[in-house]
Amino acid sequence: MSTDALVVCDDVARTFGSGAAAVVAVHGSSCSVHSGARIAIAGPSGSGKSTLLHLMAGLERPTRGTVTWPALDPAGIRDIGVVFQSPSLVPNLDVRENAGLPLVIAGVEDPGRAERVSEALALVGVDDLATKLPEEISGGQAQRVAVARVLAQRPRLLLADEPTGQLDRAAGQRLLDALLAATEHLGAALVVTTHDRTVIDRLETRWTMHEGRLRTTADRTVTS
């Protein structure tokens, strides 16, 4: 594993609101993610794990402490991809167009854009659905399209927030298979927030969140 950290959180805290209504979502937490990492952040709903992931992605600013990305592109942290709980596909765009939308917005030109989208759809096993509209595919397939949309950006750090939370067990396992295969192909690090034991057991490192407090643990044996 590389000694260069992709993201470093140093005594990070995040509070929402102020005064008597203030809620501390993340207490002072420190961690780092390196190239090749496969990390599960486990914990119940409301434990702060999604907020920590958003801090890592730069989507939230810490109330205290710092988040840095030593080995990533400093121009807008473009090397980070985030998969959210809901696929949020654009209804009137087909699968290929949905997967390529961030590249269009970023100004990536064809033919490079088309190649990247085709590769991403193939990595998660939905390339045969390229011309389908979101209403014509299942929930599990839609979530894999959402993953492809992120993979097409070729991130070095992939952050997935409860990606299997709305899927049944079989669809969740297929999605995790796709995530692991795709990050291996891209050489990306993977951090997944989850309370799903079958997901936790397949990642090499487990961290836990409880009432906003992070506990990191050593690498362990992975269940295949």
UniProtKB/TrEMBL annotation:
Highest taxon listed in the record's lineage: Bacteria
Pfam families: ABC_tran
Membrane-crossing residue ranges in chain numbering: none
Keyword ATP-binding (UniProt): yes
GO MF annotation terms: ATP binding
Domain ABC transporter positions: 7-224
Keyword Nucleotide-binding: yes
Keywords: ATP-binding, Nucleotide-binding
Name of the molecule in the record: ATP-binding cassette domain-containing protein
Species whose genome carries this gene: Amycolatopsis heterodermiae
